[in-house]
Amino acid sequence: MRKTVLNLFVALLFGGLLIPMNGYAASDEHGELKNEINKVRQEKGTTFTKEEMDKMKTQVKEKLATDPNKIKTLTDYWENEPNDSFNQANLLHLDDTVYGTFEWEDVDIYQVEVKNPMELLVSGTAQRGIDLGFLLADGYGNWLEPDASDVYDGIQFQLYVIPEGTYYIGAIDLNGGGTDSMYALSAMNMEYIQRISGDNRYETAIEIARAGWPDGADNVVLATGTTFPDALAGAPLAFQMDAPILLTPKAKLDKRVRDVMKEFGVKKVTILGGPNAVSSAVENELKKELKLSVNRIQGENRYETAAAISETLLPNRTAVVAYGGNFPDALSMAPYAAMYGHPIFLTDKNELSQATKKAMSSYTKTYVIGGPSAISDKVAKQLPSPTRIKGNDRYETSIAVAKKLELPTGFVFVATGEGFADALTGSVLAAKFGAPTILTKKNQLPDSTYTFFKEEQTTDYIILGGESAVGTGVEDDIFSVD
């Protein structure tokens, strides 16, 4: 469950917090809205199942326990009076939470823009003294009856199946108002799809960096955007450094990357691979023109580069080994490896690379990613305590990683399995969210992936890359997952 419902639980934690009122004016909408809310409450209607409510509650509690720093402060979402009529409505973005108070017979109205047909979940909760009532209206101001509604642990949930358009949420205190107590209100797409993309792989990497590091970053990991080998093992290092992965052409630093480094206030750049991957000219530009500290991690080949990256990581007894001749298996494992600091080593199918073989004496357990067609049993047997994670193809292997390692699946990242760049640069962001990266075909979900999302009841998706990488057909398939 995303921060929307998370923030609603936070409101319950403030207990006796008092917020000064701003002398809100009464609204003519109050009486009509109160009548509509009471009518809806008297009608039994359809409710969420206990399993659905338990799942939402569990997900929120887990977030509160593991990620309290992601909770935003009250001032970020405070209501702006006057908002007592449709013409004065505050804009409420999907996935955000607004906090407010009620003057006597006050009504607070918020405008929500819905760009695609969706299942819109409106949620609300309040401190003692407020009997919170709210309802959704269409763009003409007609109050709508929810398709499902329920109250669970002090949180009211209303579900509306609606087309795209402009909508309004009206909220009132059914007790009349005039207290210092506070309420929280939000709206979210139950089948939530966000896309992080740019016009090409370089811009997509920048947008991923902005999404994951909104306040900038001291460190950046830089890799070539042309080929994958040197960067495959980079996610654990980038996560350890709290650094986004950016891409550049080999010969010259991309101007957009140069600009975002200035924007972020970057102080140090770690280059993955030798001059054949990222040229000395790029390194010199970083040092001399941008005055940055530059560290290059390289080996004679992809296997040695991966081993060299492992030496920069904190000590760990578990390693990941993936096929070095292609990218999907390594990138499916990258978010998990990053989260837990497991180095990623590379090997050939039928012969264990010397660099990887030499490093194995330091490890007691190995995750082998991919089936025997990627890494043979002969190679796997040479690794310490190997556990193979595989599927029938790259798409099923990404699913197998999520299942085997018991990663949370309510929220996933989705990237093309036909190119390396977006899954690579998105791997650290996925690790920051503790989410898996699931690979897909360009224009449709593989059947196994569709079934996986259905069985896991996945509700939140972040697609990495533009429509040339992950087409709108994938979005259509996601929306059709029940």
Written account of the structure:
The relative contact order is 0.10. The protein is 32% helix and 24% strand. It has 2 domains: 3-190, Jelly Rolls, CATH 2.60.120; 195-480, no CATH class. The protein has helices spanning 3-12, 29-42, 50-66, 201-212, 235-240, 255-264, 280-289, 302-310, 328-340, 354-359, 377-380, 394-404, 421-433, 447-456, 472-480, and strands at 90-91, 97-100, 107-114, 118-126, 132-137, 148-152, 155-162, 165-173, 183-189, 192-196, 219-224, 245-248, 268-272, 293-297, 318-323, 344-347, 365-369, 386-389, 411-416, 437-440, 460-464. The longest helix has 17 residues, at 50-66. A 5-stranded antiparallel sheet has the order 2-9-4-7-6, covered by helices on one side. It has a 4-stranded mixed sheet with strand order 1-3-8-5, covered by helices on one side. Strand 15, helix 9 and strand 16 (344-347) form a beta-alpha-beta unit. Helix 1 (3-12) crosses helix 3 (50-66), helix 9 (328-340) runs parallel beside helix 12 (394-404) and helix 9 (328-340) runs parallel beside helix 13. The protein has 482 residues and is α/β, with parallel strands linked by helices.
Shape: elongated
- Total number of beta strands: 21
Instruction: Return the structural class.
Output: alpha/beta
Question: How many structural domains in the coordinates?
Answer: 2
Kindly report the spatial arrangement of strands forming the biggest sheet: 2-9-4-7-6
Largest sheet: 5 strands, antiparallel
Assembly type = single chain
**Roughly what fraction of the amino acids lie in strands?**
15-25%
Rounded to an integer in angstroms, the radius of gyration calculated over CA atoms is 25 Å
